[in-house]
Amino acid sequence: MITPTSPLQIPEPALLEQYGKQARLCATSNDQLSLVFSQIHPFDLVELEQLLEAVGWSRRPVRRVRKALTHSLLKVGLWRHDPRVPRLVGFARCTGDGVFEATVWDVAVHPRYQGNGLGQQMMTYVLEALKEMGTERVSLFADPGVVDFYQRQGWELEPEGHRCAFWYSS
Amino acid sequence: MITPTSPLQIPEPALLEQYGKQARLCATSNDQLSLVFSQIHPFDLVELEQLLEAVGWSRRPVRRVRKALTHSLLKVGLWRHDPRVPRLVGFARCTGDGVFEATVWDVAVHPRYQGNGLGQQMMTYVLEALKEMGTERVSLFADPGVVDFYQRQGWELEPEGHRCAFWYSS
Hints:
2 copies of one chain form a homodimer.
Chain A: H1 13-19, E1 24-26, E2 35-38, H2 45-54, H3 62-70, E3 74-80, E4 87-96, E5 101-109, H4 118-133, E6 137-142, H5 147-152, E7 156-157, E8 163-168
Parallel strand pairs in A: 5-6
Antiparallel strand pairs in A: 1-2, 2-3, 3-4, 4-5
């Protein structure tokens, strides 16, 4: 059970046209700022990697990032709206089978925009999108620093004694 | 680092034709038995669900299983060879992006065939196939009963303090 949050608002028609009919507004305390979640607005892969680098992850080859996005079940961008050049300020993606399992990766909100509930709204958006697809269960691997963040939102930590395990190809 | 195991043997040409050129033999102490890993031999979805039920999981609607398999990155069947009607005795599948991340689900060996190292050979086969695809990291959620099984094979438990978290749509 996810902790109830106010539902994300549907943006005006011009924004739906730019960001797709599944676009939703991300609430912010700054009235000058229009932030929009989109599943279809294309990513500039260099801008995406800069965002992920800004939250502390290492840069990855653009060619491999492109392939990974192509094979992802869901890609969500959080855009600082501009009619011509929106800026990417948040991101999340999921792999999965579209039915039983989805796994969330690469959740990021740019440091300049953190601390305003954007990350929580991002997860609300992601879970709604996966639910709409008919996904039964969503999983993720939380870093120590964000375990509380996910627990507060209703994620179950290691349910039924599950433990996560990793294997590295190199 | 995976614990070294003897490499899986390539089967004779007739079996490669039946099970695909990535087919490998699964070693067994029973000389009468020919067990083959395949990525291409088609599944009878009722037989697959019977196998998963035999290891204790609940039955799932065939239509949804079909969709989940279609969207999986890798499906591996372990077949008890028969030129006409091979029987499915083991299974594993992965979701993932084909580059950075793959996650293993539904690992099963039929109870009648357990305790002979088949599960370990299955994981060797799965990891080799993912490595060949260029996948960097493989993850799974281990039930309490199989944590040791994976650790013995070199899987890292909760590396860097990762914790697994789940969210259920219903």
